[in-house]
Amino acid sequence: MPAESASRIPKSQAPLLELDLLRTLVAIAETGNFSAAAEAVFRTPSAVSMQVKKVEEIVGRPVFNRDSRSVTLTAEGELLLEHGRRLLSLNNELIAKFITPDVAGVVRLGATDDISERSLPELLRRFSRTHCCVTVDVVVDTSTSLEKRIQKGELDLALITCNPNAKLGKGKEIVFRERLTWAGAKNGVAHEKTPLPISVWEEGCSWRESALKSLEASKRDYRVAFMSAHISGQRAAILADLAVAPIPASACINGIVELSKKENLPPLADYAIGMMMANKPSPAAQAAAQHLRESLSGDEVVRKSA
Fold first, then answer.
1. Mean pLDDT of the residues in the chain
2. Please, what are the domains in the chain?
3. Are 38 and 48 a contacting pair, CB within 8 Å?
4. 220-231 burial, b if ≥16 CB within 10 A, otherwise e?
5. pTM listed for this prediction
């Protein structure tokens, strides 16, 4: 190499942050702990810890605040997360230009408010990693409306709430099942009132059906004090101690508690997430359906998202 050219090379170059390290960083930020992140990136927790240590050595700053219960990003970690996601996305986009995807297209997916708030973001995030050329457009609506949209051909897939003990209609399958519970505000008194103030939604809601059947069977006097199609509205009513409500057990967090039998409330039946698929689904819709089916077959996805 000519002496003149060699003199132009800087004595020190900026270190490179490998995409593998950034992928682990993003996984930790999304899952909230090292163990779950290790599963997501197919490494051992100790290997993940070593990767974090390497990142922190490269940038010269801590990127996570750690305690016995949780892991949160530092300000520097937030910056790395933002740019890391961008770099990983660019990598996927670049690779996609050289590799013909097995599946590509658009999937029109419907989901209820509860599902879209608690578990759908994580489900779609995982799907996008393995199917970068499939675009998913989401519609949030009630279970009754989503069923009609499927029948009209307006949607390819739909995730709805339903009664797992009732006869399933044509084209429905159960992909997740969970216990329903009466929920109230921590240290609240709404459950002591007569008639019992409850928060439910309209006819056709499986949560409402389970709640009213249990109250009527136990001959408990009640009144519908609050109505909301959104779980955020249900939470607001509960936290304000205006009513109790039937919600999934995993949603009892942040000031919302389960009300046990000692509160004199009757037990509730389970609820389920059902999946519906349009006639003659595209390969992209079939791939999305299989991903949802496999991801929701265990309860960890919904529970971790609560």
1. 85
2. 13-96 (1.10.10.10), 105-160+279-305 (3.40.190.10), 180-269 (3.40.190.10)
3. yes
4. eebeebbebbeb
5. 0.69
